[in-house]
């Protein structure tokens, strides 16, 4: 009898493992959709502009998508805690695929930008819910496995995306960079619908109640109050985030920082922020609950990963220009200098579990961000013009340091909350990182332009200087000026890393309050 029960339990575990493997495959496909999106589109911009026109506004192909993803992250996080991960992920994937199809059918640049926003509305659900489900599926000791797989998806996408986009644009048609999402997304949707089975949970209860699924019978479910969605708060968050991020993205680009449009957007954004606070304080189930910032661990991780998003702008935006303008590399070689950090980042992330299990999440992250600060600080000391291997080595080391920093914080903060709060917590972390990237693009763009103007006596922006370099008309003084501008940006990134270090040291608890036996989706 005992052997029969043991065999039955073993068969059940094997079935659950196979089901979980299919769900993990679906999560990796869904993450690939989001990860490929920006890199695959960027290489096809010349063909898109040549076909549709609209060169003056093409940057909104990226800005519009970024805005939609960022401002919907907290909304989807709360919805996944209220209704479950599966309906949110299925809906988000469907919206993303609809946006992809519409993008492929776009007839002018305005339509393409609008449909990219539709894509972003689905992309916010993909990014936040995939990360949340990764924590649901695996207990704490196994969580680095799935996180390492997701990091690998990002790394492969960063390397393969530009090449795939270039091939499709050159030998097929730029519309295929959106159509290629359809089979990938369809496979992910099929696996999710077929294999993801979430246990019944009481969305209004805390984690201890959520774990006690055996105690909830039909009578208890009937007496449970129906979950209420703070739609007013969701709309206010969307409007506030959209206005403020638009001000940051377009400020200093479409209009001067102190111009009427910029001041009007910032003023409107601040007014909407006040409205968000009022609505969220009165809401029974707020989209951005106050406990996200009252708990030291979550607040510290939010601020630290916001600084991570900010410092990531330095290499991703400015290093390719440095590699081509200062080092004289071809675009493909310049892309390789940047892409090497996507090789060391997932490897370091996968190995970080051996460190944080010994010294804790906070101390591991402190080592990672401390090393990153020193590496970023070393960049301005590179010789001029230097050799390509020098920034390549720094980027390889930087990827390793940031892998040691980011993953322990994400795994650690997800382990301090139960199922009913995990979606909101994960979304707040990703929201802060995305916001940090947007702020970083604005701040470091202003720094670079300021240095160029000071060195060249009135150069308007980095793009105009780069165009002069591409035309072969820029003197050596311009190359020196670009090197100085990028060095200043890296110094700013080192300061952001130092701020993250101080936040973790002074705000985060020495030991994260990890919940024991946290619930998984098995």
Biggest sheet layout: none
Provide the low-confidence segments as ranges. 1-17, 202-225, 518-522
The CATH class of the largest domain? Mainly Alpha
Distance between the termini: 25 Å
On the 0-100 scale, what is the average pLDDT?
79
Number of folding domains?
A: 2
The fraction of residues in strands falls at under 5%
Taken from the alpha-carbon principal axes, the silhouette is globular
CATH architecture of the largest domain: Up-down Bundle
Q: Please estimate the helix content.
A: over 70%
Count of helical stretches: 22
- The CATH homologous superfamily of the largest domain is named MFS general substrate transporter like domains
Going by helix content, strand content and strand pairing, the class is mainly alpha
CATH topology of the largest domain: Growth Hormone, Chain: A
Order of helices and strands: HHHHHHHHHHHHHHHHHHHHHH
Radius of gyration: 23 Å
Please report the total strand number as a whole number. 0
Keywords:
single chain, 522 residues, mainly alpha, Growth Hormone, Chain: A, 2 domains, disordered N terminus
